[in-house]
């Protein structure tokens, strides 16, 4: 049986790393005989991680949005072919930190790259692969940026793009969730982490029940 593909999306500092780890712990504690594949974008393979280093470091203005989109898609193709699709073919649950929605928001909605062109890159890089469930962790962009400042990060190129950029990122994700309500579940990430986790688990539990991987109730 094909595995499940779950992605996490959200602005900078929205808590994706924390919630992915908590979801991993819950799945391992509550579902028998399932393998998990935790991965991230850009990245996931040695080659894709080298592209990540180019994209997430350096001056905020070093790449044009269209260049970013092509680099993201190149990284994604390696990731899909070598990591995600083989894991799904094994029946694994794949949990990925960012996927195509981020490209459509950062480079499309905010950067101005035409959506039809991004759809074409998706077709080339993903080969019809679409997440079964996307969890959007939504919160005020300024509060999220404050979190990233507190924790510090070497990969700070996108954080440096400024408050107005990140406010538009948030709006882009919200509109994306409205466009794809059957796939994207928006969760208020400004609340305590434990409360956010409860909503994450509820959404994943519903998916696992629908797919017959756990019993209803």
Describe the model.
The protein is of the alpha/beta class and about 220 residues long. The chain has a single domain, classed as P-loop containing nucleotide triphosphate hydrolases (Rossmann fold). It contains eight helices and five strands, in the order βαβααβααβααβα. The chain has a five-stranded parallel β-sheet with strand order 2-3-1-4-5, with helices on both faces. Helix 1 packs across helix 8, helix 2 runs antiparallel to helix 3 and helix 3 runs parallel beside helix 5. The longest helix is centred in the middle third of the chain and has 25 residues. It is globular.
Which structural class is indicated by helix and strand composition?
alpha/beta
**Radius of gyration based on Cα positions:** 17 Å
**Number of E-type strands:** 5
Provide the residue-averaged pLDDT.
94
Main β-sheet, in a few words? 5 strands, parallel
What percent of residues are in strands? Answer: 5-15%
Number of domains: 1
Distance between the termini: 23 Å
Name of the CATH homologous superfamily: P-loop containing nucleotide triphosphate hydrolases
How many helices does DSSP assign? Answer: 8
What's the CATH C level?
Alpha Beta
How does the overall form come out from the CA principal axes? globular
Strand and helix order: EHEHHEHHEHHEH
- Topology-level CATH name: Rossmann fold
Strand order of the largest sheet: 2-3-1-4-5
Helical residue percent band:
55-70%
Q: Can you name the CATH architecture?
A: 3-Layer(aba) Sandwich
* Low-confidence segments: none
């Amino acid at each position: 049986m094909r595995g499940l593909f779950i992605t996490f999306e959200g602005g900078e500092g929205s808590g994706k790393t924390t919630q992915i780890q908590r979801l991993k712990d819950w799945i391992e504690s509550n579902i028998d005989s399932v393998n998990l594949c935790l991965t991230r974008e850009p990245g996931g393979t040695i080659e894709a991680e080298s592209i990540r280093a180019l994209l997430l470091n350096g001056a905020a203005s070093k790449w044009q949005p269209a260049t970013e989109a092509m680099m993201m898609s190149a990284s994604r193709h390696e990731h899909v072919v070598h990591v995600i699709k083989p894991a799904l073919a094994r029946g694994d649950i794949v949990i990925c930190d960012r996927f195509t929605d981020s490209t459509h928001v950062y480079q499309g909605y905010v950067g101005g790259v035409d959506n039809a062109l991004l759809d074409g890159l998706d077709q080339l890089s993903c080969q019809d692969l679409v997440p079964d469930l996307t969890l959007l962790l939504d919160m005020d962009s300024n509060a999220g940026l404050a979190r990233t400042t507190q924790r510090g990060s070497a990969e700070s190129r996108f954080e440096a793009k400024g408050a107005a950029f990140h406010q538009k990122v948030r709006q882009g994700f919200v509109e994306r969730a409205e466009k794809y309500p059957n796939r994207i579940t928006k969760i208020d990430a400004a609340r305590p982490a434990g409360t956010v986790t409860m909503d994450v688990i509820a959404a994943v539990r519903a998916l696992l029940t629908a797919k017959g991987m756990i019993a209803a109730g």
